[in-house]
C-alpha cells in the first residue's frame, strides 16, 4: 500500500512539474490584447486617448446596434475573454448575443446569448468557478477556453434588446502565432431553447454535426414548469450519437444529477468540471459539465440529446394526472421490493388511475423550459 501511495505522489509531482515547465519555457508567438483602449491589438498603440489617462475604458451599444470586439488577420489563439455590462438582468443577458467568426467565414461558429455563453443559463448572475468559466463576485464574466484561428478572427456583440446598453467593458487576450498548426481545431457553440419541450421527445443539445472534433462540454438552464407542482424534473438521460449512430446512441447517462457527478437530486455547488451554481431558486436551475478528463471524441459526426423525464411518488403523479397535467408514465420502481416496471414495453398499457397500476416511484415524460449551450471543437471554421 505504501508503494502505491508513493507512486501516486510521484505521478502528481511529475504532472505539476510538467505544467510549471510549460510556464517558464520559451514560447513562440506575440501577446496581444484587444479592448476599447486598443481595438486592433497592435503593438505599441494602446491607451492613446485622453493622453493615456483612461480615455476609453468602456463603450455603449444602442438598442439594435452591434459592437466589434475583435477583428484580426493572421493566426492566433484567444486564451481569455473578460467582460462586464452595466445591465445584468437576465432579460438583457439573453438579448445581448456574442458572435465569433473564424477565417473570414460569413457564418458564425458561435452565436449565443451572452449570459448563456458564460454559463448563466437564463439566470441572474451568480458567483461560481469551473475549469473554463468564472464569475468571481457575480458582476463579471470570464472565459479561458482556448480558441485557435488560422487566418482571421472576428468577435461581435449584438444588442437585440429594446434598451440601450450604457456600459460595456471587456478585454480579449490572445497570442499571435507565426505558423498555424494543422492539428488545431476551431471552437464552436450551439445554443438551443425549447419552452416548453415536446412531450415524449428528447431535447436537442447539439444537432448532428458533421466532421471530426471533440465535444468539450455543455451548460444548461432549466425553469421547471409550475404545473408539475415542484416534482423532480431531472430523471432524463443524456445521449451521445457518435460517428453515424442513428436510432440508438453510443453513450448514455443515467440521469441529470448523475451526469453532473452527484446523485439523488441536485443541490447548489461549483466544481472544476461539473456544477450547479443555481439549484431551484425561483424554479430555475443552472448547471454545467465539461469533458476534460473524460474526452468525447468523434471522427465523422456528433449529436447530443437529453430526455425530458421527471419523477415523483405515485400519489403525486396521480394527482397531476387527474388535474390533466401533460405527462406520460415510463417506468415504476419498487425499490424496496426489487421490482421495476418498464411501462412502455407492457403489452397492455395501464392508466395511472387503474387499480392495477404499480404504486411506487413513477418516472414520466414532462415539459419544461430548457436551454443549453454545447461547446465543442471542429476541424473546420463553419459547422
Which descriptors apply to this entry?
Jelly Rolls; 3 domains; elongated
Short description:
With 383 residues, the chain is mostly beta strands. The chain has helices at residues 2-24, 90-95, 114-117, 256-259, 314-322; strands spanning 30-34, 59-61, 66-73, 75-85, 96-102, 110-113, 128-129, 133-135, 141-143, 147-149, 152-159, 165-177, 186-194, 203-210, 213-223, 238-242, 251-252, 269-270, 274-281, 284-290, 296-298, 301-306, 309-313, 328-334, 339-342, 361-365, 369-378.
Structure description:
The chain folds into 3 domains: 29-182, Sandwich (Jelly Rolls), CATH 2.60.120; 185-308 and 366-383, Jelly Rolls (Sandwich), CATH 2.60.120; 310-365, no CATH class. Helix content is 12%, strand content 42%. It has helices at 2-24, 90-95, 114-117, 256-259, 314-322, and strands spanning 30-34, 59-61, 66-73, 75-85, 96-102, 110-113, 128-129, 133-135, 141-143, 147-149, 152-159, 165-177, 186-194, 203-210, 213-223, 238-242, 251-252, 269-270, 274-281, 284-290, 296-298, 301-306, 309-313, 328-334, 339-342, 361-365, 369-378. Strands 1, 2, 4, 7, 8, 9, 10 and 12 form an 8-stranded antiparallel β-sheet that branches. Strands 13, 15, 18, 19, 20, 21 and 27 form a 7-stranded antiparallel β-sheet that branches. A 4-stranded antiparallel β-sheet has the order 3-11-5-6.
Amino acid at each position: 500500500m505504501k508503494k502505491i501511495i508513493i507512486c501516486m505522489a510521484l505521478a502528481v509531482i511529475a504532472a505539476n512539474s510538467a505544467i510549471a515547465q510549460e510556464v517558464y519555457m520559451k514560447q513562440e508567438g506575440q501577446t496581444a490584447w484587444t479592448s476599447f483602449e486598443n481595438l486592433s491589438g497592435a503593438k505599441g498603440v494602446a491607451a492613446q486617448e485622453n493622453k493615456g489617462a483612461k480615455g476609453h475604458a468602456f463603450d455603449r451599444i444602442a438598442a439594435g446596434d452591434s459592437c466589434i470586439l475583435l477583428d484580426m488577420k493572421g493566426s492566433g489563439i484567444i486564451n481569455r475573454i473578460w467582460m462586464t455590462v452595466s445591465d445584468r438582468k437576465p432579460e438583457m443577458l439573453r438579448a445581448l448575443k456574442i458572435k465569433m467568426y473564424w477565417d473570414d467565414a460569413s457564418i458564425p461558429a458561435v452565436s449565443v446569448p451572452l449570459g448563456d455563453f458564460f454559463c448563466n443559463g437564463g439566470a441572474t448572475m451568480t458567483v461560481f468557478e469551473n475549469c473554463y468559466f468564472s464569475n468571481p463576485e457575480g458582476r463579471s464574466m470570464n472565459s479561458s477556453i482556448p480558441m485557435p484561428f488560422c487566418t482571421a478572427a472576428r468577435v461581435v456583440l449584438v444588442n437585440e434588446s429594446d434598451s440601450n446598453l450604457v456600459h460595456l467593458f471587456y478585454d480579449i487576450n490572445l497570442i499571435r502565432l507565426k505558423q498555424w498548426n494543422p492539428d488545431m481545431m476551431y471552437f464552436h457553440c450551439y445554443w438551443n431553447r425549447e419552452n416548453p419541450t415536446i412531450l415524449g421527445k428528447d431535447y436537442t443539445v447539439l444537432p448532428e454535426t458533421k466532421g471530426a472534433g471533440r465535444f468539450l462540454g455543455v451548460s444548461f438552464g432549466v425553469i421547471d414548469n409550475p404545473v408539475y407542482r415542484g416534482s423532480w424534473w431531472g430523471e432524463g438521460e443524456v445521449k451521445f450519437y457518435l460517428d453515424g449512430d442513428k436510432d440508438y446512441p453510443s453513450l448514455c447517462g443515467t440521469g441529470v444529477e448523475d451526469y453532473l457527478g452527484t446523485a439523488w437530486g441536485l443541490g447548489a455547488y461549483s466544481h472544476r468540471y461539473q456544477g450547479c451554481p443555481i439549484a431551484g431558486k425561483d424554479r430555475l436551475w443552472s448547471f454545467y459539465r465539461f469533458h476534460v478528463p473524460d474526452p468525447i471524441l468523434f471522427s465523422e459526426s456528433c449529436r447530443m440529446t437529453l430526455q425530458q423525464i421527471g419523477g415523483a411518488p405515485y400519489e403525486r403523479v396521480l394527482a397531476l394526472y387527474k388535474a390533466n397535467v401533460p405527462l406520460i408514465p415510463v417506468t415504476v420502481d419498487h425499490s424496496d421490493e426489487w421490482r421495476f416496471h418498464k411501462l412502455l414495453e407492457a403489452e397492455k398499457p395501464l392508466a395511472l388511475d387503474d387499480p392495477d397500476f404499480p404504486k411506487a416511484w413513477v418516472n414520466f415524460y414532462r415539459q419544461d423550459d430548457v436551454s443549453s449551450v454545447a461547446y465543442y471543437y471542429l476541424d473546420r471554421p463553419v459547422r
